[in-house]
Design goal:
Blueprint (H helix, E strand, L loop, with lengths): L3 E5 L4 E4 L2 E4 L5 E5 L6 E3 L12 H14 L4 H18 L3 H15 L3 H9 L2 H10 L3
Antiparallel strand pairs: 1-4, 2-3, 2-5
Helix pairs in contact: 1-2, 1-4, 2-3, 3-4
Length: 134
């Protein structure tokens, strides 16, 4: 395994194993060689009060694993249940493909990949809420 490569913008912050690391004034690349390190870009982080929609709630659960706040085993069933519930609503082929990838990632303990797949559904969810009558 070659590790994870983070490309950071100037002053960008990232959470690595519970420590907030801020980049300097220039773009940079970090190679994370330690397997299973807990890494979360803070610009992508969903705060608890923002987890107010179905997709955001499932993303937030995956994020808790990445931040190291909960163990993967403690969230596996909750994530899989949430993804299953989303699949009952998001029935278009693209959403189904992303949900299938997210499921496979959770089963393989690849929570970064799961979060990446789930985050791709956020624009769709926003469009659905915007189109629905109030």
């Amino acid at each position: 395994m070659t590790g994870l490569v983070l490309k950071l913008a100037p002053k960008e912050r990232v959470l690595i194993n519970g420590a907030v690391v801020e980049n300097g004034d220039r773009r940079s690349r970090l190679s994370i060689m330690t397997p299973n390190a807990h890494i979360l870009r803070l610009r992508d982080a969903i705060h608890p009060e923002e987890a107010s929609t179905p997709v955001r709630r499932v993303c937030y659960i995956a994020q808790l694993v990445l931040s190291g706040d909960v163990a993967p085993a403690d969230t596996r069933m909750q994530l899989l249940r949430g993804i299953e519930q989303l699949s009952q609503v998001l029935t278009d082929p693209d959403s189904r493909a992303q949900l299938a990838l997210a499921t496979a990632a959770v089963l393989d303990d690849q929570h970064y990949q799961a979060l990446k797949c789930l985050r791709s559904l956020l624009p769709r969810e926003e469009r659905l809420f915007a189109a629905s009558p109030q």
